[in-house]
């Protein structure tokens, strides 16, 4: 009971001490909160964008088989399908037709794809939300694309994809197989690649080896590898942004260090008075621990809450372009919270704990000196 | 009894700016008396009071308070000593600005963790004794010099110490306020407290209820005057 009452007294004194020097403490709180906000935003954004990628790709094929000729991606013959289908463990093999189309007027690079069982006509298309945003010249839902042979194709937009899958579909134009071949010039009997469904995902690697043995010029790409690539890309980008933020982090540590090495004359005198009237060194350290704790915990929680609102409520306007990476077709993302407790924990230990300690050092130095000297 | 044996204090020892503030002070101070250390500025009064009160350590010599040899006590025991056995009244009062008078008075008791209501009542009683109860909730910086000193007296008494140490307590007071201060100190001595005052103010060391005046100069005792009614010293 006495212990609790002591802590209440110390906390009470801490709060009044913070208020007595509110200019200094508010500026420190502001800078501290801003740093946590910036780093927290990058972390939460990178985590959420990875989750979005995983959510979108999770329904994709376990494996994609491409054909590589002279080190370049080439069309794959459709007769490979039968041989791959016969490999034990393979459930289905579907040919996929897709490619890129640069549209000079909008300066955007679209992804064209032939949708299996496309339910609309040959002059109709389904587009990603980014396509509509990028092309201001869309009139009456019609899109002009110039084919590989120079012929213009007038296509009617019959459907726009949900922006929830923008991360992978912002630039997508879905069409009938015949339309795709007309525009891109991919010959009959060939596909861009093959999507392979496998009964047991743990056998992916073995089946991939068997495919390469059958067709040495092919390259099987596993879904897990794509997910890893996405994770690596977004980790790299978030790391890059954090490096750019290093200047602000450095400024924060300079500020914290300044606080660590120097107490104001008034603060030193105050410590001397408290020691003179009978406070022990440990009492002073508890007081300063509370003081550092109040500032750092307040800054940490304000920063994290700010970062959460910035990323999940405002869709991270500060970092979105840097972290997403699209040149023209920025996906309109609706990010869903997926905070990583380990990352938040790491941020906590990298900011709150060191700050707590740096505030203790000068207080300890003043507290162990004779009160009569400190008070002078 | 507070006993000092061959106390000396050198600041910056071993450095070119070394300065000896006290040299060979040997004294016995009986409890329940009012003793004044008199002397000009720089004579060593403040240093001596700091050493007696456990706020500074002597360079050489020994101090005993009752049965307790405090010279080599670890720091945390000295904190206990300052908290429980001494109450300090500083020349500049050293009240903490921004806190109320009541909060300043309660401050020395915080580490003991008393029940808040009891502590508050105790502090209010002391403020009433120094006629400052109506200023209890005022920030200390709003008080006049005399009022600040009375607040400092109340703070010194909050843990009911047996000895009050006052350093140049009348330096910033006019004659009436200085007399009022001395009357309060007299009441404390009458109540059984020991009062040690460092002062260069004749009003203090000529005060009729002072039991003993010890004159210091250049860190040494140069003269001592003991009232006839003082049994020993």
Describe the protein's architecture and organization.
- The complex is a heterodimer of chains A (376) and B (233).
- Chain A has 376 residues and is α+β, with helices and mostly antiparallel strands.
- Chain A has two domains: 2-56 and 231-374, no CATH class; 76-191, Barwin-like endoglucanases.
- Helices cover 56% and strands 18% of the residues of chain A.
- Chain A has helices spanning 2-20, 22-57, 80-85, 129-134, 166-169, 177-184, 204-214, 223-244, 246-261, 265-276, 281-313, 320-324, 341-367, 371-374, and strands spanning 63-69, 72-74, 76-77, 90-103, 108-114, 124-127, 142-146, 152-160, 172-175, 190-191, 193-198, 218-222.
- In chain A, the strands form two sheets. In chain A, strands 1, 2, 4, 5, 6, 7, 8, 9, 11 and 12 form a ten-stranded mixed sheet that branches. In chain A, strands 3-10 form a two-stranded antiparallel ribbon.
- In chain A, helix 1 (2-20) packs across helix 11 (281-313) and helix 2 (22-57) runs antiparallel to helix 8.
- The longest helix of chain A has 36 residues, at 22-57.
- Chain A is elongated and about 95 Å long.
- Residues 327-331 of chain A have low confidence and may be disordered.
- Chain B is of the alpha/beta class.
- In chain B, the strands form two sheets. In chain B, strands 6-7-8-3-9-10 form a six-stranded mixed sheet, with helices on both faces. In chain B, strands 2-1-4-5 form a four-stranded antiparallel sheet, with helices on one face.
- In chain B, a hairpin with a 2-residue loop joins strand 9 (212-217) and strand 10 (220-226).
- In chain B, helix 4 (116-129) crosses helix 5 (145-157).
């Amino acid at each position: 009971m006495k212990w609790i009452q002591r802590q209440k007294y110390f906390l009470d004194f801490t709060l009044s001490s913070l208020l007595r020097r509110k200019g200094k403490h508010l500026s420190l709180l502001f800078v501290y909160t801003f740093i946590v906000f910036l780093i927290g935003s990058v972390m939460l954004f990178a985590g959420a964008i990875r989750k979005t990628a995983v959510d979108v790709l999770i329904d994709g094929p376990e494996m994609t088989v491409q054909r590589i000729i002279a080190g370049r991606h080439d069309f794959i013959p459709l007769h490979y399908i039968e041989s791959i289908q016969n490999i034990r463990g393979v459930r289905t093999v579907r040919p996929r037709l897709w490619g890129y189309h640069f549209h000079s007027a909008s300066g955007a690079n679209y992804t064209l794809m032939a949708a299996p069982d496309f339910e609309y006509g040959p002059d109709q298309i389904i587009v990603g939300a980014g396509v509509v945003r990028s092309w201001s010249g869309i009139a009456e839902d019609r899109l002009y694309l110039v084919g590989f042979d120079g012929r213009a194709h007038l296509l009617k937009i019959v459907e726009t994809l949900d922006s929830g899958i923008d991360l992978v579909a912002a630039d997508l134009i879905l069409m009938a197989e015949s339309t795709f071949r007309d525009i891109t010039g991919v010959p009959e009997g060939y596909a861009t690649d093959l999507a392979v469904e496998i009964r047991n995902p743990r056998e992916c690697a073995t089946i991939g080896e068997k495919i390469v043995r059958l067709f040495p010029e092919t390259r099987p790409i596993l879904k897990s590898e794509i997910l890893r690539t996405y994770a690596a890309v977004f980790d790299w980008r978030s790391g890059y942004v954090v490096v750019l933020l290093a200047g602000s982090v450095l400024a924060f540590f300079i500020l914290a260090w300044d606080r660590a090495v120097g107490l104001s004359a008034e603060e030193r005198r105050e410590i001397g008075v408290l020691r003179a009237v009978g406070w022990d060194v440990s009492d002073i350290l508890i007081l300063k621990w509370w003081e550092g704790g109040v500032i750092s915990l307040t800054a940490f929680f304000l920063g994290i809450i700010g970062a959460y609102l910035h990323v999940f409520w405002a869709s991270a306007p500060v970092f979105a372009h840097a972290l997403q990476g699209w040149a023209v077709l920025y996906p309109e993302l609706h990010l869903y919270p997926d905070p990583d407790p380990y990352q938040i924990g790491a941020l906590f230990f990298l900011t709150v704990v060191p700050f707590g300690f740096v505030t203790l050092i000068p207080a300890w130095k003043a507290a162990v000196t004779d009160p009569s000297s400190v008070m002078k | 009894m507070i006993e000092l044996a061959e106390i000396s204090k050198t600041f910056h020892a071993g450095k070119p700016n070394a300065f000896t503030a006290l040299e060979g002070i040997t004294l016995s101070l009986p409890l329940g008396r009012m003793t004044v250390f008199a002397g000009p500025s720089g004579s060593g009064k403040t240093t001596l009071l700091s050493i007696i009160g456990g706020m500074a350590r002597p360079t050489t010599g020994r101090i005993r308070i009752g049965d307790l040899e405090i010279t080599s006590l670890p720091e945390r025991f000295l904190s206990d000593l300052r908290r429980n056995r001494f109450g300090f009244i500083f020349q500049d009062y050293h009240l903490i600005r921004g806190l109320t008078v009541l909060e300043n008075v309660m401050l020395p008791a915080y580490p003991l963790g008393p029940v808040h209501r009891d502590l508050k009542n105790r502090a209010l009683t002391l403020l009433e004794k120094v006629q400052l109860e109506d200023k209890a909730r005022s920030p200390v910086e709003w008080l006049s010099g005399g009022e600040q000193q009375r607040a400092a007296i109340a703070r010194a008494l909050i843990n009911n110490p047996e000895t009050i140490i006052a350093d140049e307590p009348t330096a910033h007071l006019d004659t009436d306020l200085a007399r009022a201060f001395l009357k309060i100190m007299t009441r404390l001595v009458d109540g059984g407290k020991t009062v040690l005052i460092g002062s260069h103010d004749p009003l203090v060391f000529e005060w009729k209820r002072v039991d003993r005046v010890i004159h210091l100069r250049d860190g040494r005792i140069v003269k001592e005057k003991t009232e006839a009614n003082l049994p020993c010293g």
